Amino acid sequence: MATEIDKHFKPSVKYFNVSNPPKADVVITEKESTNRNFQVLTIPSILPSSEKDEFLLQIRASVISEIRESAIKVDSKKYNYSEIWLGLCTVCLGAIFNNYDSQYIYLILAFLIGVSGVTYYFTRKVNIEGFSEFATKVLKLLPNEKENKPDGY
């Protein structure tokens, strides 16, 4: 059974120079001659077509640890309390459509809708700002692959 990745995999062969290539085979043609024939081994690498023109970027460990610390701070928030305010607002809005005889209930529900709606707006805004701060911090710390392209790419 083929997985989703296997369906889109199109192999391609890419030859690259190895930084420490294996020792070349040396063949001496005559006993006293200094002529030597060298064989250079190129190693094929089978890569998917999406990774054929990829290159490596170097990132310092301190940058990765700084990003990790920021991600832990964002992830440490267990529950988004703004959703409770949204739930209260919608429950009160649904209760208004019920046929109550008292006008005081309509006033209380309208007040609760206003308070919970405004509270939801501002708590949600603070949450979104926290995520956008995290995203901008990560984008500033990570190197830009378009500016750091090696020659030939």
Question: Would you kindly provide a written description of the structure presented here, covering whatever features stand out?
Answer:
The chain is mainly alpha-helical and 153 residues long. Helix content is 48%, strand content 12%. The two termini are 36 Å apart. The radius of gyration is 32 Å and the shape is elongated. It has two domains: 4-51, no CATH class; 61-141. Helix 2 (61-75) packs antiparallel against helix 4 and helix 3 packs antiparallel against helix 4 (103-141). The longest helix is centred in the last third of the chain and has 39 residues, at 103-141. The model has no long low-confidence stretch (mean pLDDT 76).
Main sheet properties = 2 strands, antiparallel
Average predicted confidence as pLDDT: 76
In total, the number of strands is 4
Number of helices: 4
Helical residue percent band: 40-55%
Strand ordering within the main sheet? 1-4
Report the radius of gyration as a whole number of Å.
32 Å
What overall form do the CA principal axes indicate? elongated
Structural class, judged by helices and strands? mainly alpha
Q: Brief overview, please?
A:
This protein is mainly α and 153 residues long. The chain folds into two domains: 4-51, no CATH class; 61-141.
Chain-wise SSE layout:
Blueprint: H1 4-7, E1 11-16, E2 26-28, E3 36-38, E4 43-48, H2 61-75, H3 82-96, H4 103-141
Antiparallel strand pairs: 1-4, 2-3
Helix pairs in contact: 2-4, 3-4
